[in-house]
Amino acid sequence: MAAAMSPMARDPKAIETAIASLAAKFGNRLVTSRAVREQHGNTVTWIENQPPDAVIYPQATEDVQEIVRICAANRVPIIPFGQGSSLEGHVNAPYGGVSIDFRDMNKVLAVHAEDLDCVIQPGITRKALNEYLRDQGVFFPIDPGADASLGGMAATRCSGTNAVRYGTMKDNVLALKVVTPSGELMQTARRAKKSSAGYDLTRLMVGSEGTLGVITELTLKLSGIPEAISGGTCPFPSVDACCNAAIMTIQTGIPVARIELLDALQVRAVNLYSKLALAETPMLFLEFHGTPAGVAEQSERFAEIAAEFGGGPFQWTTQPEDRTKLWEARHNAAFSTFTLRPGAKMIATDVCVPISRLAECVAETQRDIEATKLIAPIVGHVGDGNFHLTLLIDTADPAEVVAAKAFNERLVERALAMDGTCTGEHGVGQGKMKYLLAEHGLPALEAMRAIKRALDPDNIMNPGKVLLPG
Amino acid sequence: MAAAMSPMARDPKAIETAIASLAAKFGNRLVTSRAVREQHGNTVTWIENQPPDAVIYPQATEDVQEIVRICAANRVPIIPFGQGSSLEGHVNAPYGGVSIDFRDMNKVLAVHAEDLDCVIQPGITRKALNEYLRDQGVFFPIDPGADASLGGMAATRCSGTNAVRYGTMKDNVLALKVVTPSGELMQTARRAKKSSAGYDLTRLMVGSEGTLGVITELTLKLSGIPEAISGGTCPFPSVDACCNAAIMTIQTGIPVARIELLDALQVRAVNLYSKLALAETPMLFLEFHGTPAGVAEQSERFAEIAAEFGGGPFQWTTQPEDRTKLWEARHNAAFSTFTLRPGAKMIATDVCVPISRLAECVAETQRDIEATKLIAPIVGHVGDGNFHLTLLIDTADPAEVVAAKAFNERLVERALAMDGTCTGEHGVGQGKMKYLLAEHGLPALEAMRAIKRALDPDNIMNPGKVLLPG
Prior knowledge:
The structure is a homodimer of 470-residue chains. Chain A has 470 residues and is an alpha+beta fold. Among the domains of chain A are: 105-224, Uridine Diphospho-n-acetylenolpyruvylglucosamine Reductase, domain 3; 228-326, 2-Layer Sandwich (Alpha-Beta Plaits); 336-429, Alpha-Beta Plaits. The first copy, chain A, is built from 17 helices and 19 strands. Chain A has helices spanning 12-26, 34-39, 61-74, 126-133, 150-155, 163-166, 169-172, 201-205, 239-251, 264-274, 292-308, 320-331, 333-336, 358-372, 398-417, 436-440, 442-455, and strands spanning 30-31, 54-56, 78-81, 98-101, 108-112, 117-120, 138-139, 173-179, 185-187, 214-221, 223-224, 228-235, 258-262, 283-290, 315-317, 345-348, 351-352, 378-381, 386-393. In chain A, the strands form 4 sheets. In chain A, strands 12, 13, 14, 15, 16, 17, 18 and 19 form an 8-stranded antiparallel β-sheet that branches. Chain A has a 5-stranded antiparallel β-sheet with strand order 5-6-10-8-9. Chain A has a 4-stranded mixed β-sheet with strand order 1-2-4-3, with helices on one face. In chain A, a hairpin with a 4-residue loop joins strand 5 and strand 6. Chain A starts with 11 loop residues before the first helix and ends in a 15-residue tail after the last helix. The mean pLDDT of chain A is 95. At the A-B interface, strand 9, helix 8, strand 11, helix 9 and helix 11 of A face strand 9, helix 8, strand 11, helix 9 and helix 11 of B.
């Protein structure tokens, strides 16, 4: 067996041979210009840009199989690429290789409205998919901040604001087609809503970040567009009060669709960027899905809970325009933070803790921000215990970068000490590899490494991501 | 690497050595009497009893580690055992070895009501767990027919009548402690509600049927006990009408908690066994969870849908006694079938198809039953497309056994042809191994085998289950 997890040496000769073969087969769908290659290295993080040696644009699963076979024959790394919106260096090419860009594989192949599922190619984005689905009365609920590709969303096991009600990608992918490291086509499951037939390859691939194979087709679970939606904002005297109201809402069994925390600084950024006039105090953004009577009842019950914790008034509406404006503001929350420090680099953090520890974790983190003198507003998927800080960094100031990185380390350690995870939804990529041992312990990490070696013995699938060499 | 998936030869000398070591360590918690060993071979199926060489009763995770280390040193098979209620030969010992019975590891270790989770040992049964949880306002929703152990339920990725609303075991296990084949203790995840930190070992272990390690602790997601529950029965003119009403109910977004199909013959058995007087026609049993106003609204909306398909009246109630009686009757459905043919052996089938194909699959299956002259009532978790026939067989009549087995083969082929699965919730065990190639195709099956070899190179973990030798 190859020493799979040991660092790969970049092999210029092998790469040259593979690129020549790919060019012969794919012509101008293979691109090696510096600009395009650099666009395909990750820049949405503080990890340096590590461009691939070439970028290729397949049009069908068979193309991907051919690409993988050529790369495998030359032991050349393969890096799947969707929209490039991942946050931990997932699409960088630390050992060179070929970036497979799914731009041209963005079709909806089938919608089975009766079964509440659809079959798609990996390059389609979440907004384009929902645009396509809208007139059939169904939607796909997972909504990360970026308009990411569905292939990338599956690869990182992402989620978003709807996860408290609809789950994450692991709950909404029914089956995958995956090109294996030897170029074979694997179907991980069938279209039945549930199965006990063998190991759960679907869930193994979801979140494996392209390190076990290349996703070329997804069967997704859909949800019916709710008959009625109500939503609104509710100010609170403290982050603690926000968290406690969220806990009680969920414990009471209110099937809240979205329950999002913004700290006072984040509200200020949202006001500045989205031209809103929200009270600049810790706040929950909420949404309820159901029947007209149901969403009214849920909204009223939540308002009562909020009042118990000193929050309110809960201003809610069922008007689509008002809700859309609000949630656009929420989705732009990370981007809006640049208003707080124009020109700064935005770095996203992503820990997740049991919800009972959330208030404490956020409070300690806020004290840490203050002590470190960072500018870092907070948004949280509070129903899941997951929160992000957007660190606004002057990357030209080495001392500030060092301080910010040390802050992020403390944040991860704090989350782990509270039985949490170093990443709730962004994934490991290059940025979080060093935390996996502390999070999972050696036996689990060794199991992951054994699986990686078993399925990708030559370590050609997105090497240098997820698992540090053992 | 050991030729892991090749059939193991039973090695009497190694087994003798291991048993002597185990006896020295565990005294009378190791039992080798014939009666106890035979009780631990599977008898809830038509697969022959294959007793282990010994049964051992650990009291702690450390005991399990010690047992596994002794067995591993001697390459002796290990078969985890919960309640023995699995239906496909999961607990048989085709190559001998040691059955680990979790009878004494049945504690609730922690309940975190704020986080809606609990930590338990694998031997506790679903009824005992819910008894324990009741006064804390939370419950664990997964309800297979039997009062199974939670460890076994996780191992088979089981579900039950609530899955349409609450998901299956894959959706309700947050984390596991697993003793690996080398006796190390692996924690698959932390208590955070979601994570993107590496490969999803939790979901890999759920449904792996003891072939990758031994579960010794489970962290389960809990749900709040609904404020109000309504439930009832609704007769329909045909199975087809039942299925179409179920499809529309789910598409409309009614968050039905249970929607169960019984065919006319099954209703007759339920009437006989549970002393009910239901109309002996295809019928849906339903339950709705929510607020008092919410469940009333859901019930009324369902009644309208039922009427559209010629069904009704939908008789529903929120009275706990009436509901309990109804769902006890439903849970006893399989057992009640013996009234249709006293003395017969009951064999359970378990296919699952996309819901849009369910009516067609059931109708073809009913024609097949008629042609084969079998007695086989049907119950279905119709919201998931999953249905069971209880075949009532005179096992002393070889021709009938042959006919029944051939019928089951056709049933599986029919489900696979409709993009379904050979098992929706019972698992593979010994009985369904031969269907996995047709269901998954060779690349997926080879990936499963590679994972098995990587994690259990000596094939000591429940050998002869799930994966046929390659």
